[in-house]
Write a structure and sequence with these properties.
This protein has 391 residues and is of the alpha/beta class. It contains 12 helices and 14 strands. The protein has 2 domains: 227 residues, Thiolase/Chalcone synthase (Peroxisomal Thiolase, Chain A, domain 1, 3-Layer(aba) Sandwich); 145 residues, 3-Layer(aba) Sandwich (Peroxisomal Thiolase, Chain A, domain 1). The strands form 3 sheets. A 10-stranded mixed sheet has the order 4-5-6-1-7-14-13-8-9-11, with helices on both faces. The protein has a two-stranded antiparallel sheet with strand order 2-3. Strand 8, helix 10 and strand 9 form a beta-alpha-beta unit. It starts with a strand and ends with a strand.
């Protein structure tokens, strides 16, 4: 298939590494990113744990900005360099960079420290990261923010692709960021009973799965129309061949129990990509390791793909990155195409027979695939799917 949307670069900052290369290495070597949260604000919690992002260096101009913005800047600048984007006119570069919660930590701590030198409101909104990227990198093309809970990253990718299709710009930096490891947010998830108590971390699709653990991070992708990317001799990596967004409309916190709202989202993405289910070689599942999510998602995947596509969840390795999950998992799915290796589902020891999917072998496996699918779902029933393909 000629034409369409291609990916010319990406960047990540995650609990596994401070860039894409180190994140992929941490995913493959079994790095456990979960650590105890320390400080007086955590003393009321019993063994609070999360996966905090690793950063090599924070520019001095960002030291007083919200951490979610710091992570966004590092991921986007890696993507900018990877894609050699400096050759594209600034007014032809758009942004669809988002956050689920914005700079919520800055807002919640605004009255407890010396904040006279900056205004936390500039960091609070979900669109703040995109604004920061435009200021730092000088883009003057259209900017859009998508805040859709844990599907924020995939929503951002879909909106970026539509900008390109509409001719509003020639390149888009898309992605998402999240840093909300704060006692208030933590307590909310804990009260919902969705946190794992397993010391090694979450185990999606396992009989003993008991929930996720929070993480933080950011990821960015550079999308371009294929013809303009080739014209400027950009380092084209893969193709964004399909995407779809939808809504569950079932319950604020629960998914439709038979997976019947996920199935059409997958089918729409396949249709846009002009692919059949048998063409998909690997699926990066949302896989939160909660009892209901994994069962319902497995039902939907099995209905479309049967036992044909390999499936894993990377949240047991990265933590649940919330608003950044979709974009980080999209980049990891892209790396599957480039590296020819499928990551396993961390800590999966006893697969639940109710989760009828084809699990990647323990430790990961070398396997060349041509098309990969990444899935994300968010509270409120916000659903998304993206498909990446080799050129």
């Amino acid at each position: 298939m000629s034409g369409g949307i291609v990916v010319t670069g990406w960047g990540m900052v995650t609990p596994l590494g401070f860039n894409s290369r180190f994140t992929w290495g941490g995913l493959m070597d079994g790095t456990n990113p979960f650590t105890l949260l320390k400080g007086p604000e955590w003393e009321k919690f019993e063994t609070p744990r999360a996966a905090e992002a690793l950063e090599a260096w924070i520019p001095h101009t960002l030291l007083k900005r919200d951490r979610s913005l710091q992570l966004a800047a590092l991921a986007a600048e890696e993507a900018y360099q990877h894609s050699e984007l400096s050759s594209v006119p600034a007014d032809r570069i758009g942004t669809t960079f988002s956050s689920s919660k914005g700079g919520v930590a800055s807002l919640l701590t605004a009255g407890s420290g010396p904040y006279e030198s900056w205004d936390y409101l500039t960091d609070y909104f979900p669109h703040s990261a995109g604004l920061l990227l435009r200021q730092r990198l000088g883009f003057t093309g259209p900017g859009l923010s998508v805040s859709s809970a844990c599907s924020t990253g995939i929503g951002s990718i879909a909106m970026g692709a539509r900008m390109l299709q509409d001719g509003e710009c020639d390149a888009v930096i898309t992605g998402s960021t999240e840093s909300s490891i704060h006692p208030l947010i933590y307590a909310g998830f804990q009260n919902m009973g969705v946190f794992s108590r397993q010391w090694d971390g979450p185990a999606a699709f396992d009989l003993k799965r008991d929930g996720f653990l929070m993480g933080e991070g950011a990821a960015a992708m550079v999308l371009e129309r294929e013809e303009s990317a080739k014209k400027r001799k950009a380092p084209v990596q893969i193709r964004l061949s399909g995407w779809a967004l939808g809504a569950d409309a079932y319950h604020p916190l629960e998914m439709e129990p038979q997976g019947q709202t996920i199935v059409p989202i997958i089918q729409k993405a396949l249709q846009k990509a002009r692919l059949h289910p048998a063409d998909i070689g690997y699926i990066n599942a949302h896989g939160t390791a909660t009892k209901l999510n994994d069962k319902i998602e497995s039902l939907a995947i099995h209905q479309v793909f049967g036992d044909k596509a390999w499936v894993s969840s990377t949240k047991g390795a990265t933590g649940h990155l919330l608003g950044a999950a979709g974009s980080v998992e999209a980049v990891l799915s892209a790396l599957v195409l480039k590296e020819g290796v499928l990551p396993d589902t961390r800590n999966l020891m006893h697969p639940d027979p109710q989760c009828r999917v084809k699990h990647v072998e323990k430790g990961g496996m070398k396997h060349q695939v041509r098309h990969v699918l990444s899935l994300s779902y968010g509270f409120g029933g916000q659903l998304g799917a993206v498909i990446f393909s080799k050129l």
